[in-house]
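User
Here is a favour to ask of a fellow structure person. I am asking you to supply a protein in sequence and C-alpha cell form. Please set it down just below, with no commentary around it:

Assistant
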Amino acid sequence: MVLNYIWIAFFIIAFVIGTVRLLFLGDVDVFPAMMDSTFSSSKTAFEISLGLTGVLSLWLGIMKIGEKGGVINVFARVLSPVFARLFPDIPKGHPVTGSIFMNIAANMLGLDNAATPLGLKAMEQLQELNPKKDTASNPMIMFLVLNTSGLTIIPVSVMVYRAQLGAAQPTDIFVPILLATFFSTLTGVIVTSIYQRINLLNGVLLATLGGLSLAVAVIIWGFSAVDKAAMNTISTSAANILLMTIIVAFIIAGVVKKVNVYEAFIEGAKDGFSTAVRIIPYLVAILVSIGVFRASGAMDLLIDGIGWLVGLCGIDSDFVAALPTALMKPLSGSGARGMMVDTMTTYGADSFVGRLSCIFQGSTDTTFYILAVYFGSVAVRKTRHAVACGLLADLAGIIAAIFIGYMFFG
C-alpha cells in the first residue's frame, strides 16, 4: 500500500513540476524528456531482469545443491539461537535461516549479483511460512530491512569506480563506509524490533551485537595497518575466494550426501528463470516512476531546497552537493551510481564532496528497488512497516555518513 502511494506521488509531483516549468519558464523540452524517461526506464527494467536470468539460474541452482546436500540446514542450526530471537515467527531449524545468512553474507562482501538470487530464494521460503500471502510477514520485513540497510564490509564496486576516476587512494573510503553502513544496519534492526516488539535486551542478541561491533573494530584496525594498495587487493581477493569456496563446498556437500548435483543444479536453475520473468512488471513500475521524477527536475529542486534550508541554519553546506547520491540510493542503485560518478567527475574523486558521495553510495542499499523486487517475486502487495523501517535505516546511514565524512575528510 505504501509503495502504491509513493508510486502515485512520483508521477503527480513530476507532472506538476513539469507543467510549471512549461507554463512559467517556457521549458518545452521537459515533457519530451519525461516521456523519453518512461521508455528508457522500462527498457532498463527489462534489461536488468534479462541480465538477472543467468545469475539467478546459477545461484538458485547452487542453492538447490546446498539445500539437498544439507549445507543450508547446517547454517540454520548454527544461526538458530540468534535468528530465533530476531525472527521469532520462523520455526526453529528451518532452512530459510541458512538462506538468509547466505544472502546477508553476500551483501556484506559487496557481491550484489550473488546476493539478489540468494535473497529471492529466502523470500520464497519465507512466503511458504506466511499465513497471509498478500501481506508482508514480520520475518519478511526484518529480512528486507537487513538488506536495505546495506551492511557492507568490502565495498569493492565503489573502490573500483574511484580508481577509474583517478583517485590517489581509491580505498580511503573503506573505513568510513564500514562505519556508516554499520550504523545504518544497527538502526534498522532496532527500529524493526520496536515495531515488531522484539526484545533486544537478552543475552544472545546483546552478545551477538557486541561481537559484531568488536569484529568491525578488528577489521578496521587490521585494514588500517596495511598499505592502501594491499588493502584493495586483499578485499577483492577475499571476496572472490570466499565466493568460489562457497560454490565448491556446496558441490562437495552434495557429493558426500550422494546427491545428483547436476540434476539438483538444473532443478534450481529452472526456478531462477521463472523468477527473473516474474519480477519484470515490478521493476518496470518502480524504475519508470523514478525516471519521470528525475526528468521533471524534482530531484534538483529538492536538493536546492535542502541547500537553502541548511544555509539558513548557518550550518556548513559543503555536504549538500553530495546529497543527490544519498537521495537517489533508496530509489535506484544504478541512478545513485550515476550520481556518484557524476559528483566525482564534477568535483574530483579526492574532493570532500566526491568522497562523501562514495560513502553515501556504500552506506545503504536501494530500498524501493529491493522492496519492489523481493515482494514482487512472491506477489506480496501489503508491505506494512517495511518502507518506514527501511527508510529510517537509510536516514541513519545518511546522517552517519555526513558526520563520518567530515571526521575523515572535512
